Every structure is written in structure tokens, then in C-alpha cells.
Amino acid sequence: MTVTAARTELERTRFFIDGEWVMPRGSDTHVALEAATGTPLGTASLGTDADIDAAVHAAHRALEGPWGHTTAAERATVMRRFADALSARADETSTLVSRENGMPIALSNAFNGAAPAGLLRMYADLIETMPLEEARPSPSGATIVRREPVGVVGAITPWNYPQVLAMMKIAPALAAGCTVVLKPSPETALDGYILGDAAIEAGLPPGVLNIVLAGREAGAALVSHPLVDKIAFTGSTAAGRLIGAECGRLIRRCTLELGGKSAAIVLDDTDIATFVAGLGDASFQNNGQTCTVQSRILAPRSRYAEVVDAVAHFARDMIVGDPLDPAVTCGPMASQAQLERVLGYIDAGKRSSARLVAGGARPAALSRGWFVEPTVFADVDNSERIAQEEIFGPVVTITPYDGDDEAVRLANDSEYGLGGSVWTSDEERGLAVARRIRTGTIGVNYYLQDLGAPFGGMKSSGLGRELGPEALDNYLEYKSIYASADQLHR
Ligand code: NAD
Fold it and tell me: Whole domain around residue 351: which residue ranges?
């Protein structure tokens, strides 16, 4: 069944295992609700440990079978067909995700519609040109240094950017010759089927990609399954700690892309119009439901009132409503639980010494759906909960500082280190400040993720990097074969 303007309900009760849509082993189902209305959008089955086990075995068979013996060029060809099949479904995908999690449609078009196919093409190109075997002179003759696939990958994803976050794992894994079991989040229960349909159309061999929607218990079964070689996880720091501990116990490779509480540093020479033009992407992207949002704004005391005024106006001017309306700049929260979490933090802000300068409630005009007004607290001490904990909603804090050194100290005074930005009319000065921030990504005068460059976190924001050519390292193992000097001349 396809999504139509009439908003048909979807039934996605099968799992994609071994190249087919198969019946679940258990009977748990999940009713997905539309973020903008709170009404049913569709029904999906939730997988059990037995479904995960079947998917991992399929992935393992594919790895041991023909996929494990493909050349890079053969994999690249299949990946490009997969990209074409996803491109043909891009509108369907981005619309469905917006309905599931409230993402404004233009953003969804970019990250759920276009980016997954782009990543497949990017990694197809990279693997075709990357030398996977090289002979080097050695004291005894020659050593052949090979790069081999890590093996079966368990990919676990959150609900906020479900398609691109899944493909940030699937594309480099397939390029490297790995096979994948994807476990998406129940909060975005429905869009995963599009990957399965596209994989079938593209002729992806059975077992190379398997998709089982499941909750955290079955997710834990994937993490500890004996036939899984590597876990690629994106989600909360709390879950990442548990998964990292289990992978440590098993000596299992893992990458962890976790939470954030990033800072936007407004330097005293900032052009306010430039700052305001970039504020939506930097601090409110996807209704604040983005791991990299710069929800802590650090403002120089010499221009403090001006910055507070600009941010408050920006927040008040955001258009809150149906994420499918292209004019809307702030959609709803993804779930009732997420709404309650964000409102809880707004209450904590109101009880603190901070000054509420915009928002602070649910929008009166929207009687259904999980909407929150874009909210700004000024005069926030950086040690307050609202400045230290990840809120994951359209809520920002503003903290005054004196001098660049204090701005750097405050930006780094966080357990996280994922995103960030520096705003200035002097790019060299901005770059100098950016180099001092302990974070995985940071922008000068804008913040937009570059899918061609490594992405990930420092401190409690994660381990390892996704994206860019560097992400292939996550899915390849080195092997050194000691041989004779004859190998140097082949
Ligand atoms: P979450 O940690 O609750 O869940 C993420 C996924 O992990 C879901 O599929 C969930 O079912 C699964 N899961 C949870 N506990 C598990 C466990 N013990 N074992 C196995 N699987 C488990 O996170 P969420 O609420 O879905 O997503 C929001 C979080 O994700 C935020 O903290 C956000 O910052 C983070 N995030 C990080 C990045 C990044 O690249 N660093 C990107 C997007 C989101």
C-alpha cells in the first residue's frame, strides 16, 4: 500500500529477511501514530529474539556465500541499482518519515529522500577506486596487506533521521563486502519497508540486507548475537553505554553515535543577520530533534541584549504546524513521550533562575498533535539542567560570557562534544576558536552536515566516525599475509 494524499493507513507486519518479506515469529504489534495529529498512521510488527536470530543467520549465510566473494566493482553495480530504486521512491520516503516523526518536509526531502541514494553512490565510487590489497617489501620477502570485510553488521538506528542514519551504516558496509541486519526504532516503525522494497527491485542478493523492526530487548539480542561481528549504533548516550559495555565484553567492534548538547558561540564581531540566517539549521533543525543542534547559545556580554532579542524574535517567527506544509519551519515532536520530555525541561527552565523570552508552552492554536512552541531561555547559568542535558526539542538557552577564552571554556563545559558553531565577521578568528572546541563537527558562520566528511562525537557523544571515506574503515579489517618477494612484481 502506498501513502496517498488521503492518508491511507499502512500495514507493515512482515520483516525483510533473506531477500523476502517474511511473517514474524512473535505476535507483538505496534500502532504508529502520526506526529501532527496523534491519529493512527499504520501498524507494524515488533520483532523478537527469534526474528533477530533468523535475520543474523541470513546475513551470515550471505557473507559466507556469493556476497563474500564479490568484487568491489560487482558490489558497486548492485549499490547503484539500489540507489536508483531508492531515488524512485524518494517522495514517498520523505513524506512518510515527516508524518512519522514531524520532520519539516524540505529537510525530510534532503535527508530521507535524497541522501540515502547519494550515500550509496558515494560509497560505490569509493570502493571501486580504493586499493584493497597491496604488496610491500618486507625483511623476509613481501607482505601482502589486505583489507577484508569485518563481517555481519548489526545496525541500530533512532527515529529522528531514520533513513539517512540507516544508510550511513548500510552503504559503507555493503561497499566493504559486509552484510547487514538493520533494527530501526519503533517510533519510526513504517518507513523501513521502503529499503526492503528497493533492495528487492535492485536485485540485492538474499541476506545481504535484512530489516527487523524491534524494541530495545530484541536490539540487545542483536548486539550480543554470536554471529554478529560489528555493531553500528546511533541513539542516546544511555543506550550507547550499555551497548558499548556489551561490545567490550564480547570484544566486538562497535561505533557509537550518541547524544549532544552543542554550543553556538556568537563572537563580539558577529553580523547578526548572518547569525539569524543560520540559526534554523544550527539550533532548531528538525524541531530541535537533531543530535547536533546548538541548543546552548553563548553571547558576548557587550552585545548580549541584541543577541537575546534576535534569537527570541527568530523563535517567535517560526511557523509551527503540519510538517508536510512547506511553509512550516517547526513541526511536532515525534511522540507523546518526546512531547512530555520537552515540556518537562521547559518546566525545569521556568523553575530555574533563567528568564523565559519566547515560547514556553504548547501552541494554543494546535489542539492535536505533539507541538511545542519554539522556546528561548536567557540568562542561563551553564550548570543548569537545561544547559547540560540533551532536551531534543525546540528549546535553546542563552548564556552571557566575557572574552573568547570564557566562551571556549563554557562551550567545552559539557559532557558532550558532537556539533557546534562559531559566528564572527572574521573567519580566521572563528577558525581559531573552532579549533579549541572539543567536538566532532563545528561550523563557522553556518552549520550543515557534510556527508563527505567524517562525522561523530568526542567525550560522551560517541566512539568512532561515520560518513566520508573514513567510514569505510569501520567495515574493513586489515590482514597481513607474509609471502615471497615474487609478490612485489605481480
Ligand atoms: P534510543 O537510544 O532510545 O534508541 C535508539 C535505538 O536503539 C532504537 O532503535 C532503540 O530501540 C535501540 N535501543 C535502545 N536501547 C537499546 C539497547 N540496550 N540495546 C540495543 N538497542 C537499543 O534513542 P532515540 O530516542 O531513538 O534517539 C534519540 C537519541 O539519538 C538522542 O540522544 C540523539 O542525540 C541521538 N542521536 C545521535 C546521532 C549521532 O549521530 N550522534 C544522530 C541521531 C540521534
Answer: 263-450
Asked whether 259 lines ligand 1 (CB < 6 A), one says yes
**Of these residues, 178, 247, 254, 291, which one is catalytic?**
291
288: cell is 530541535
| Residue 167, domain member (yes or no) | yes
pLDDT in tens, 389-426: 999 999 999 999 999 999 999 999 999 999 999 999 99
Query: Domain count of the chain?
Result: 2
The C-alpha cell 553500528 sits at 232
Q: Say yes or no: 339 and 439 in one domain.
A: yes
Task: Identify whether 330 is a catalytic site residue.
Answer: no
Question: One of 34, 187, 257, 466 is an active-site residue; which one?
Answer: 257
In angstroms, the CA 426 to CA 389 distance is 31
Annotated active-site residue 257? The verdict is yes
Q: Is residue 330 part of a domain?
A: yes
> Within this chain, do residues 225 and 239 fall inside the same structural domain, yes or no?
yes
Rounded CA-CA distance 75/98 in Å is 31
Strand spans (E) along 359-420 = 375-378, 395-401, 416-417
Is 489 within a domain?
A: no
Supply the DSSP symbol for 472: G
- Residue 448 in contact with residue 420, Cβ under 8 Å? no
Domain shared by 334 and 283, yes or no: yes
Of ligand 1's listed atoms, the one at least distance from the Cα of 237 is 32
Same domain, 307 and 238: no
Tens of pLDDT, residues 189-228: 999 999 999 999 999 999 999 999 999 999 999 999 999 9
